[in-house]
Specification:
Elements lengths: L5 H17 L15 E6 L6 H8 L2 H4 L3 E6 L3 H10 L4 E5 L1 H8 L7 E6 L2 E2 L1 E6 H8 L20 H9 L5 E4 L5 H12 L6 E3 L2 E6 L4 E4 L5 H6 L5 E5 L2 H8 L2 E6 H4 L6 E6 H6 L1 H23 L2 H8 L9 H8 L2 E3 L5 E3 L4 E2 L10 H13 L9 H11 L2 H13 L33 H6 L10 E3 L2 E3 L2
Parallel strand pairs: 1-2, 1-3, 7-10, 7-11
Antiparallel strand pairs: 3-13, 4-13, 5-16, 6-11, 6-12, 8-9, 14-15, 17-18
Length: about 475
């Protein structure tokens, strides 16, 4: 969606500044002198692209002297390839994409992020048939409803039954380096189900797997489940709630129940683009911070309006009722079992937009755990890689400008952070995560590569 011409915007800002000075009040800050004022940014049709849509619709890009076109992409691979080729200036990305590309898993390219787009926002949905078989293993509360969080232990005997009948237990996730892949794997492994390994010669991710995970684009998840090609999937909204509305599946767990307040998407650009366009980069981050603030301010008071915007065909294009199910602080599991999940979508609170190194390190541990990083790495490597990709210095520069302009509050930003969160105990399996000690964290995982282990010839070898 194109914005009004930046030259006109600058003239208006200058005029406003003169008027403000004449009136004896503080001048309105002029936009940065950006290197590039016409931008094309990519996204996938998911509700967590919201900061981009809001920055466009509310004029936040325009305030920064930017004319931005937002363009939906066919899938995550196409999106990444187009950012690398320069066809897109930047994009809404899976948090694992800049890291995977930078270390050379899949397409090799140095991608950076200075803005984390949201926390949470995903779920795991199972077919009605699988849910009925699994449900008998799930404890019930006094109200007769399943007790949440529902653990994968309840799914394990169902998978064993399918295996005994000679049926592979197929599940979908959106991309090999997606949060969805790692969350689904984490949940399965916490219940004693092996989701399989990758190796340099077999990138299926299904080596030794009890459940076979494969890529399905997000909008196609419900149809693929309905067709019986997969028995469940891990995806962002609105595609879990779509399964409920269509009556074809049951979301059994949200990602905030797997890892409380986990980082989800990021805004990514190439390192070369960031180096050539530092002021433009700052301007984009400023606009996105303001959009995130708007989405969460006054206890999510703007979410109903955000739902209407996201429902437009040029953005998510799903029914507003489906988008509202999660965006307005509720989540429907089994049909009729709607529960309050106020933090299902978080865009600004809890320092959601700050690019923490410890978040980057967690993604790298999961790449190592499942063999996408084939060889053991020292703790220092994880830190160095995180710093190559995550750019909190750029984020804080943008935040500082917004505070000076009176558009943000100083108290809302982690100015003194070293980029690492405290030890995190918010995981479903109770295993604590310390981003400064990634190898210790890996060693605690009952399923997954650790130490010097690697996958060779379809087997885990080493110790």
């Amino acid at each position: 969606m194109a914005q009004s011409p930046p030259t006109l915007r600058r003239l208006l800002a200058s005029a406003a500044a003169v008027i403000a000075l004449t009136a004896g009040v503080s001048a309105i800050a002029a936009p940065l002198d950006v290197e590039k004022d016409q931008l094309k940014l990519g996204f996938i049709k998911l509700t967590d692209m919201a900061p981009l849509a809001i920055a466009a619709e509310k004029g936040f890009f325009e305030d920064e002297g930017l004319s931005v076109t937002l363009e939906p992409q066919a899938n995550w691979k196409v999106l990444l390839d187009r950012v690398i080729s320069g066809e897109l200036d930047g994009a809404h990305m899976l948090a694992g994409q800049p890291l995977g590309a930078t270390i050379g898993f899949g397409t090799k390219a140095h991608i950076v992020t200075a803005f984390s787009m949201d926390l949470n926002g995903n779920g795991i949905t199972l077919s009605n048939d699988v849910w009925q078989k699994m449900k008998v293993n799930v404890p019930k509360g006094a109200d007769g409803k399943p007790v949440h969080p529902i653990k994968a232990d309840a799914l394990k005997p169902v998978i064993a039954q399918y295996k005994a009948e000679g049926k592979p237990f197929n599940m979908g996730m959106v991309f090999p380096v997606s949060t969805h892949n790692y969350e689904l794997r984490y949940w399965l492994a916490s219940g004693g189900i092996n989701p399989g390994f990758y190796s340099p010669t077999d990138v299926s991710g299904q080596i030794g797997a009890d459940a076979l995970l494969s890529v399905t684009p997000p909008p196609q998840m419900p149809a693929t489940l309905e067709a019986g090609t997969i028995y469940g999937y891990s995806v962002g909204e609105p595609w879990n709630q779509q399964a409920v509305i269509k009556g074809i599946g049951v979301p059994v767990i949200t990602d905030t129940e797997i890892w409380k307040n986990n980082p989800e998407k990021v805004f990514g650009v190439t390192d070369d683009w960031a180096a050539k366009n530092p002021k433009t980069h700052l301007a984009v981050v400023k606009a996105l911070i303001r959009a995130a603030q708007w989405l969460d301010e006054n206890n999510n008071a703007n979410r109903a309006e955000a739902v209407k915007i996201l429902a437009k065909p040029e953005y998510v294009g799903a029914d507003a009722k489906v988008i509202a199910n999660s965006m307005t602080g509720t989540f429907e599991y089994e049909k009729g079992d709607k529960r309050d999940v106020p933090d299902f979508n978080v865009f600004f609170r809890y320092n959601a937009t700050y690019p923490f190194y410890s978040d980057a390190v967690w993604y790298l541990t999961q790449m190592r755990r499942w063999g996408q990083i084939a060889e053991a790495k020292p703790d220092a490597w994880y830190d160095e890689t995180a710093r190559k990709v995550y750019k909190p210095d750029v984020y804080l520069q943008a935040a500082k400008l917004l505070v000076e302009e009176g558009k943000s509050k100083e108290a809302d930003f982690p100015w003194k952070s070293d980029g690492y969160k405290p030890v995190d105990n918010g995981f479903i399996d109770g295993i604590a995560y310390d981003g400064r000690k990634p190898n210790d964290y890996l060693a605690k995982q009952p399923i997954g590569l650790k130490g010097d282990q690697k996958v060779e010839g379809g087997q885990v070898v080493g110790g």
